[in-house]
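User: Is it possible to get a 3D structure for a protein together with its bound compound? The compound here is adenosine monophosphate. I've pasted both below.
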Amino acid sequence: MIRDFADLDLDPVLLQSLEEMGFSKPTQIQASAIPVALDGNDVLASAPTGTGKTAAFALPAIQYLLDFPRKKPGPARILILTPTRELAMQVTEQVKSLAKYTRLQIFSITGGVQYQEHADLLAATQDIVVATPGRLMEYIESETFDCRAIEWLILDEADRMLDMGFGPVVERLSAECRWRKQSLLFSATLEGHGVENFSARLLKDPQIVQSDPSRRERKKITQWYYRADDLPHKVELLKHILAEQSQKAIVFIKTRERLAELRGMLEKASIECAWLQGEMPQDRRNNAITRFRDGSVNVLLATDVAARGIDIPDISHVINYDLPRSADVFVHRIGRTARAGKKGTAISLVEAHDQPMMDRICRYQKEEIKERFVDGLRPQHKKPVFKKKKKTKASPAKKTGKKSTKRKK
Ligand code: AMP
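Assistant: Yes, that's possible. Here is the predicted structure of the complex:
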């Protein structure tokens, strides 16, 4: 049973940086994945963000490089692929912190950076490269990046990479790295054809590390919802939560149009916020993330697409201004709070038409979410009851003649 980092076969320089980073005990995924990876196995791990997955692959990778030091300068030996630039940046930062007391060279290759900025680094000796697939492939095609010395290939958030259509590029990259010794694939879920087929092609006899952290993580997330009669009511509830309840909140909104509209309303109410929306220039994205991360603003508005891959510690509240279209996105959203053992709160604002989705979410996460009320902002409508539709479509008029959604105006 592994309880401490000292129980893992890690170099004292890694233990030192872990201590400085405030990682006192390994998380579940770290305790399970690190020994298996250090034993030389391919690893297939299920680990959503927030569970400590980055260190779970970075620590054994760094340890491997310390155990087998390079004999002469040369190209990268470990390649970590991530779906987004932000994630690549975060992973790079964390790997650099972990490797602080080593001489390893760590470098990231992502889109949004001029080739010129990469050129010198590409020519120099690198040990670990963190990259997004598209940009890396460009460099391989133009023969500015050499994959032949890669010994470990690590895929982070493989399910997101597949969702984003990176499957074929990653498979080509995997073929480029065919001389590698080991492959590690981390994914929030391992279910579904996509990840199963993908991992079968990329991994050799992998050891499956199935942590069940999501349920454990979720337990530390207190959840409730408020019912809203209409949009103005919803906005009032949100303002109340932001003013009275939350310290550092990420607010999820369905579309960028609604995000812009909400932003305007919050600004009018003198609630300062940063925001992320799709197709935002990289520098503005980074700026918004930095302002939120360093506490210059305590509210971040985001759409699901725009929030992909960002990891900000200490988010106290996840607020679902709009519910997502599927229950697994909901679970992914709320997983942004209660990171690595901390507590968090997830609050959803629910209009009548959202109730079936709310029920689906509760079924999916096998946990009831209770309703709460704010004095002075109680809903005027009764909670709608949506009856399950019968499968047979033949008889539209039900025997009872009752409507399934009965609401008073
Ligand atoms: P990750 O799942 O890798 O995105 O990590 C989630 C957060 O947990 C990051 O902010 C890490 O810095 C932090 N973290 C990772 N491992 C540990 C640990 N063993 N103890 C405390 N915090 C950790």
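Confidence is low (pLDDT under 50) at residues 393-409. The pocket of adenosine monophosphate is lined by residues 23, 25-27, 30, 49-55, 311, 313, 339-340 (CB under 6 Å).
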